[in-house]
Amino acid sequence: MRLVVVKPDGKQQQLDVMAKVREGKRLIDLTGNDIFDLIRESENESRLHRQRYVVLGEDLFVWKMPEFDLLKEDVDNLADKFRKKKSLILDLRGNPGGYEEALLRLISNVFDHDVKVGELTRRKETRPLLAKTRGERTFAGKLIVLIDSESGSAAELFARVAQLEKRGTVIGDVSAGAVMRAKGFSHELGVDIVVFYGDSVTDADIIMTDGKSLEHVGVNPDEIRLPSASDLAAKRDPVLAYAASLLGVTISPEQAGALFPLEWRK
What we know:
- Helix content is about 25%, strand content about 25%.
- By secondary structure, the protein is of the alpha/beta class.
- It has a 6-stranded mixed sheet with strand order 3-4-5-8-9-12, with helices on both faces. It has a 4-stranded antiparallel sheet with strand order 7-6-11-10.
- It is globular.
- The two termini are about 20 Å apart.
């Protein structure tokens, strides 16, 4: 892979990066020790994609949401943690999306009225995509949503709904523009030796309430804020620090960067 990287001093350098290839087993014995390797891999993935949050001061809740992979009950449980706070920063940077149910439930927890996300448009039918409010159990405080170029699907939809409903401020970079809904199908072949595989099929687009689709367009934030190359190298997060300052909480970019440090696969 040929990359052009920007160094902390702003200079650019072209790099040719070679992949490290590791050949795995052609056959995995799920009745033997191989099952433990799969369990460890699953645990590592779960660790990297866990939901993280902190409370700054007394009333600012910051939720780093890596993916919309939660059940309705899990969304409610997390929302109950910030429901009585004065403000919420929802960090959706790098969030590729996930379950439609999780998106709708999150909207239900931050809006005091039912919300129409848009029209779910398929080849032969169109139907509204609606989120029903939790009523008195919703979060009523101030909301800031952080997005970047890797925020996709449900992350983009939530950010755009916040803009269209004038519910909160969106800060960061233009999002990915990848909102087509897809359905996943799992398959298997064999009896004693089984091959598992799957596919994902796009089945619908979503037309927002302004009559437009986000596909190949993305969400334009209310305010563009990006870390510099030197910020990334020093593990600073000036975007999160700025968002906190808008809500009356002062933290340095260094402190903000230490809240949710970048993690890698072990």
